[in-house]
Design a protein that fits this description.
The chain is α/β, with parallel strands linked by helices. It has two domains: 301 residues, Rossmann fold, CATH 3.40.50; 81 residues, Orthogonal Bundle (Arc Repressor Mutant, subunit A). The protein is built from 13 helices and twelve strands. Helix 1 runs parallel beside helix 2, helix 6 crosses helix 9 and helix 8 packs antiparallel against helix 9.
């Protein structure tokens, strides 16, 4: 199973890029490898995002929203998504992070507010709201006027209505600045359930209008039945609808989208797809690094696979460390090939400006360290040269080396 990316190049058409091996994920139990993956992305990306945009924002403010925050913390004291956001706000040194956490279940909200109050007492700018996120969304966006905004939307079932989300992203927040980004859960289980009802002609099933609202229309119905086919491939349906949803939302908001299938185990169907939306090549680059590092955390949590699963990444005869090393070796070789191809086309370019070309074929596996090592190897062999260095590898400017072949 692969991670795939659907993306829209500025002024261009949509393309599709096959990337890394997919991950597994679950929604509630932080001990599951799937939750390790999702939380590792949040932990890494939010800190990087707030530092990246907060240093130049008005008053160094950055708004971060968890629209389905639950209790904020697991019963055993481990942080859930809500507390991970609060922790990022507490750690921020280059930005003033304003965290807004929303939960509609009253009992969960009461627990969430206790967690938020702990961080407020420590000086963190945070607030908890009770109720469905869509009832607070307009006020949340209004309070973030003129400052960067990151939305995390992780429902257990149907997500935010397409029209509501599109209106927010395509309204006053449509310009590139201040930055607006979204990471959301598009529920594959829900898509399969709705498709099953549709295929069985259960037209009164409540999942159908619910998915209509999430998708912004009934277009998914014909698409699902067409893709389902006589072999009733529900995994293919979920993948197709998630990609089409990402493309539609990105097109309607002028953003670029990345779609990541998330599974409980390698051979299982996705539980959901993570959809990441941004308008910045920097966002695409930093998300690539966060995704790749989260994948390694997932591999460590997943461990060797039992049984004779031919789709298993590794067996009890392999160590997780060896698998990660092998993946990184292959990713480094691929990035090296990509860099050689880039300088064969251009005499001078900043790496982040060619983010898709740099990560082509290994998005979700290659991280910043992978790229740095690949660049060093191509420089040593003489095919690439560094024209300008920068604080981060993404800011390096490169060109053809003395051994480059044109």
């Amino acid at each position: 199973m692969t991670i795939s990316s659907i993306y829209r190049q500025p002024g261009g058409s949509w393309g599709e890029n096959i990337m890394a091996v997919g991950t597994t994920s679950g929604l509630l139990d932080h001990n599951h490898s799937q939750s390790v993956f999702k939380h590792a992305i949040l932990h890494r990306y939010i800190g990087a995002y707030t530092a990246m945009v907060g240093s130049t924002s008005a008053g160094n403010r950055v708004a971060v929203v968890d629209g389905f925050a639950g209790r904020g913390r697991y019963p055993d004291g481990k942080p859930a998504s809500g507390e991970l956001i609060l922790q990022a706000a507490a750690r921020a040194s280059r930005a003033i992070v304003e965290a807004t956490l929303v939960e509609k279940n009253r009992a969960d909200y009461a627990k969430l507010k206790n967690v938020v109050d702990e961080y407020v007492a420590r000086g963190v700018h945070a607030v908890a709201h009770h109720g469905p996120v869509h009832t607070h969304l307009n006020n949340i966006v209004a309070s973030a006027h003129g400052v960067p905004l990151f939305l995390f939307l992780d429902p257990c079932g149907a997500g935010l209505p397409f029209d509501d989300l599109s209106r927010v992203l395509a309204g006053e927040r449509r310009p590139d600045r201040p930055s607006t980004e979204v990471l959301l859960n598009f529920n594959a289980d829900f898509t399969r359930r709705a498709t099953g009802a549709l295929a069985a002609s259960q037209h009164e099933h409540d999942s159908l209008p619910a998915l209509d609202r999430v998708c912004g229309g009934t277009w998914w119905r014909d698409e699902a039945l067409k893709v389902l086919g006589p072999d009733r491939n529900f995994e293919r349906v979920a993948e197709t609808i998630a990609h089409a949803y990402t493309k539609r939302l990105a097109n309607s908001t002028g953003m670029q989208g990345i779609t990541v299938p998330v599974k409980r185990r390698v051979s299982h169907q996705p539980v959901y797809h993570l959809v990441f939306l941004t308008r910045s090549p920097f966002g695409i680059w930093v998300f690539a690094d966060a995704l790749a590092r989260a994948r390694q955390e997932w591999l460590k949590a997943l461990g060797p696979q039992e049984g004779d699963d031919e789709n298993a990444l590794f067996t009890f005869g392999d160590s997780v460390k060896d698998v990660i090393k092998q993946e990184q070796t292959k990713a480094r070789e691929r990035v090296g090939q990509n860099l050689r191809s880039i300088v064969a086309r251009q005499s001078r370019m900043k790496l982040v400006d060619q983010v898709w070309s740099v990560f082509d074929g290994v998005y979700g596996i290659a991280n910043d360290t992978t790229v740095s090592m690949a660049l060093r190897l191509t420089v040593d062999e003489g095919t690439v040269r560094v024209i300008e260095e920068a604080k981060n590898i993404r800011g390096y400017v490169i060109g053809p080396g003395p051994q480059a072949i044109h």
